[in-house]
Write a structure and sequence with these properties.
The complex is a heterodimer of chains A (92) and B (280).
Chain A: H1 3-15, H2 17-25, H3 27-30, H4 38-45, H5 49-54, H6 59-67, H7 75-91
Helix pairs in contact in A: 1-2, 1-6
Chain B: E1 3-10, H1 16-23, H2 28-43, E2 47-52, E3 67-70, E4 74-77, E5 88-91, H3 94-106, E6 112-114, H4 121-130, E7 138-143, H5 153-167, E8 175-181, E9 187-188, E10 199-200, H6 204-216, H7 219-225, H8 228-233, H9 241-251, E11 258-262, E12 267-273
Helix pairs in contact in B: 3-5, 5-9
The chains are: A mainly alpha (92), B alpha/beta (280).
Amino acid sequence: MSTYAVHKVCWLVHHDPEFRERMRQDPATAIADFRLTDEEQTALLAGDVGSLALMGAHGYLLGFLQRYRLLGLDRDRYLEHMRPAKLRARSE
Amino acid sequence: MARIVAGLGLPHSPGYPALVAREGPTSETAQLYQEVARRLDAARPDLMVVFDSDHLNTFSLNPLPTLCIGVTNQTAGPNDGTPGVPQYIVPVAEEAATDLLRFGLQAGFDFATTYEFTLDHSIMVPLHFVRPQMDIPIVPIFINGIVPPIPLAQRCHALGQIVRQAVETLPGDLSVAILASGDFSNDVGGMLAPLDEYSGSPDVAWAQHVVDLMRAGTVNQLVRAATTPRMARAGNVAGELLNWIAMLGAIGDQRPEFLEPQADEGHAYGFWYLDGGRHR
């Protein structure tokens, strides 16, 4: 159940300006101490919110990453990354 | 003896205050909130129990309460910068909140308690539209309808029934309204949102079915239909329906006096008068 760690990163981005700034400057170091799986860590650093959603992360929380334009995300990039997950959800 | 005089249910879309500020009081959204506001005004409640799902602005993820009562004398909000909503001070009915907490625990509802908290858009948007005077003390009851695992509809319905019993033990001749906040089908930032949209209603048919069951006053049927997987298919915040189910548990199997869906938005605006309350 490490979805919690992904959620925690997203929650801190929204609620902790100092952490948000570290995510902006050096995301790999900022998330190094969280109990993320390797897959989650890779997806997170790639801004791959679609994979994170498929792994169980909540879109409302992931959305903070695009709101603060972190990990290469803005609203359009966020939707692009989410699109494969959306297509998969529709095919199931 | 205190008694419940009204139930109401409202959406809390954070974009609505700015939308209504742009489009004015004749816009559809403004009119729908106004339909509920004037009925609430006529019901003249002395306090209002609010069933709400915090969007992780009142609480963090750790700990994340499944059921929680807010106990204090006043709070404030919005705490999440909702566009178009001023900062309000909101009175809280501290003694009633304490009584509800104690009654609930005695009845087997193991509430968490928060004594210091602020409110996010999920309570402030409805209050902003239907009671901007902020002159009705509230008792906020937070139900986690957003971050899985979420509680069962049956349990939330029973919670509402317990709140009704608790209200009826409150001292004084209080009139109580029950407010539910939330959507029936909505996905925010997730994979069930419309393909090219950030958020939206993925399951308009479910939202309409919910409205139909509410309109018929068949709450038990709604409770049975609202399984956890069914709500999950309706979007990642569709568990907000639990707030409405708790409200319906408190007011009983009654037909609404007013219930109007915004079908494409996956939600509705509703008002229920109760026997003993003031009728139109």
